[in-house]
From TrEMBL:
Keyword Ribosomal protein: no
Complex and partners: Component of the cytochrome c oxidase (complex IV, CIV), a multisubunit enzyme composed of a catalytic core of 3 subunits and several supernumerary subunits. The complex exists as a monomer or a dimer and forms supercomplexes (SCs) in the inner mitochondrial membrane with ubiquinol-cytochrome c oxidoreductase (cytochrome b-c1 complex, complex III, CIII).
Keywords noted in UniProt: Copper, Electron transport, Magnesium, Membrane, Metal-binding, Mitochondrion, Mitochondrion inner membrane, Respiratory chain, Translocase, Transmembrane, Transmembrane helix, Transport
Protein name: Cytochrome c oxidase subunit 2
Catalytic activities: 4 Fe(II)-[cytochrome c] + O2 + 8 H(+)(in) = 4 Fe(III)-[cytochrome c] + 2 H2O + 4 H(+)(out)
GO biological process terms held by the UniProt record: ATP synthesis coupled electron transport
């Protein structure tokens, strides 16, 4: 989760988020090289005294500054397309979770199990414990097993919401009257937070998302305890 003065990406908990982080670093390195090169060219143009008022064309330099941006875009587009298709691919999921957005809470339904439905509200500040996270803790967190492919089916009952877990690289809109789906894979245990990422009304900032990632045997015990 993000903490105070944390300006970089959150630590990844899924292979997809690792790929997104690598792509971010790859793109930023290319942008840094372009920025440095442009600054050097501008600086040398300002300090040199050479002019050529008879220069009409330069086919070689025109060829270079046409091919170079095209090659740069290819280096950015290829990994981007790969990650785009990885995000849309949904192989055989181990668990399907249906999440419905409301003003202003989330409800969850684990359709692979019988009668597993619950609502998840933000814990009020006056009921939080000393170790709780303000505006992030909920009364009923979503418990999921790690090392399992999770399929999320997202919808809404009123306005557009957005179900988001940044550390898993998941962000999908909850649209009224429509089912959107995505999948993710968590490779470590822990508690991970997200928030509604679509402005949905007065209490938009008070509908957090909390996921607890546990081992599959403990997940089965949690299901039986409901």
């Amino acid at each position: 989760m993000s903490t105070w003065m944390h300006i970089s990406l959150q630590d990844s908990i899924s292979p997809l988020m690792e790929q997104l982080t690598f792509f971010h670093d790859h793109t930023m390195f290319i942008l840094l090289m372009i920025t440095v090169m442009v600054m050097i060219i501008m600086f040398t143009m300002m300090i040199n005294k050479f002019i050529n008022r008879f220069l009409l064309e330069g086919q070689m330099i025109e060829l270079i500054w046409t091919i170079s941006p095209a090659a740069t875009l290819i280096f950015i587009a290829l990994p981007s397309l790969q990650i785009l298709y990885l995000m849309d691919e949904i192989s055989s999921p181990n668990i399907t979770v249906k999440s419905i957005g409301h003003q202003w809470f989330w409800s969850y339904e684990l359709s692979d199990f019988q009668n597993v439905e619950f609502d998840s509200y933000m814990t009020p500040i006056n009921e939080q414990k000393p170790h709780s996270f303000r505006l992030l803790d909920v009364d009923n967190q979503l418990v999921l097993p790690y090392n399992s492919i999770i399929r999320m089916i997202i919808s809404s009952t009123d306005v557009i919401h957005s179900w988001t877990i940044p550390s898993a690289g998941v962000k999908i809109d909850a649209t009224p009257g429509r089912l959107n789906q995505t999948s993710f894979f968590m490779n470590q245990p822990g508690i991970f937070f997200g928030q509604c990422s679509e402005i949905c009304g007065m209490n938009h900032s008070f509908m957090p998302i909390m996921i607890e990632s546990i081992s599959p045997p403990y997940f089965i015990k949690w299901i039986k305890s409901l």
